[in-house]
């Protein structure tokens, strides 16, 4: 199984350095916004045929991993270091 780290890329020259799906201009933020507005995976792929189910899942994995990282950093800064 492909890791989200193989799919989500950061290029400072594309979308102001926001994480995007491979070489597309579809960012993780875009994907999360579409999903939160109720778009289905099929609708997203229909609108952006360069994307796949794996790409959508990679965006969700990336967001979950970033959330875990933020929580750990917050805990370390405010709970452990005091």
TrEMBL record:
Instruction: List the protein's name.
Output: DUF433 domain-containing protein
